[in-house]
Write a structure and sequence with these properties.
The chain is an alpha+beta fold. It has four helices and 13 strands.
């Protein structure tokens, strides 16, 4: 039989190619599954990192971005030191999305449009939860959800609009632990004051027949709290501290001197 240049016969070469084809065909599915698993695990880790970056951004800037990708993408990119596109899109260039609980700030469902802390919140956020969702098989858009739809995804019940899988990855962020209650009471006949992170000055009313002399605020963790002496708003700053837990302070007269004290 006619021989090829390297000593293989044509029949032998055909046999080698046939075996190679069979091996490639049997290995391809396994290789594809391995790549899919690798992408899936990598995306899950990416979302965990995004959650950490989001929390860091909130504490550093005392601001929670909206679900608009141009907003949260630009905001988180500064902390993560990457381009916004690396956050708003996954490794396959499909868009990621942030979904906010409709009961984030109030007990009435509403579209969360972002939050910037000025003087803090009068009421504790009922459900400050965020879902970060990515689909390795298609774009994810941040459409509005009802609280029932949000809870279904969060808890992965049967009627969840997004179901975690190899392609759909979900990261949950609960900011409840990052809001601390601060109780301020004023025993003076004039309003005392407080401010947050060099922001505007808010009044702490005096005790009178119409008021109880208390001001309650829910403040983002690591906020710098300044307590001002009476009268509001011209009283000087007496105390400056970081809010890292729920606390209370009273503006009282001790030995003829008015000052802020922690009970």
């Amino acid at each position: 039989m006619r021989r090829l240049s390297q000593g293989f016969s044509l029949l032998e070469m055909i046999a080698v190619l046939a075996i190679s084809s069979i091996l490639a065909g049997s290995l391809a599915p396994s290789l594809i599954r391995s790549l899919e698993l690798s992408h899936s695990e990598s995306e899950a880790e990416s979302l965990k990192t995004m959650a950490t970056v989001l929390i860091e951004y909130v504490m550093s800037n005392k601001r929670i971005p909206s679900s608009n990708p141009s907003d949260w993408g630009s905001a988180l990119a500064v902390v993560a030191s990457v381009s916004p596109a690396n956050l708003t899109h996954n490794q396959r260039n499909y868009s990621r999305a942030l979904f906010f609980d409709p009961l984030f700030l109030t007990n009435t469902e509403s579209n969360f449009s972002g939050f910037t802390q000025n003087l803090g919140l009068l009421n504790k956020p009922p459900s400050p939860r965020i879902l970060i969702i990515s689909n390795l098989a298609g774009n994810t858009t941040s459409s509005l959800l009802t609280s029932l739809q949000f809870n279904a995804i969060w808890n992965q019940t049967n009627d969840a609009g997004f179901v975690e899988s190899k392609t759909i990855k979900i990261e949950r962020v609960n900011l409840a632990a990052y809001f601390h209650q601060v109780l301020l009471s004023n025993q003076n006949s004039n309003s005392a004051a407080f401010s947050l992170d060099l922001g505007s000055v808010g009044a702490v009313p005096p005790i009178s027949g119409a008021t109880d002399g208390e001001e309650i605020r829910h403040i983002i963790k690591s906020t710098q709290l300044r307590l001002h002496a009476a009268p509001y708003p011209s009283g000087p700053v007496q105390t400056t501290l970081l809010v890292n837990s729920s606390q209370s302070f009273s503006y009282t007269n001790t030995s003829g001197s008015w000052s802020w004290r922690s009970p």
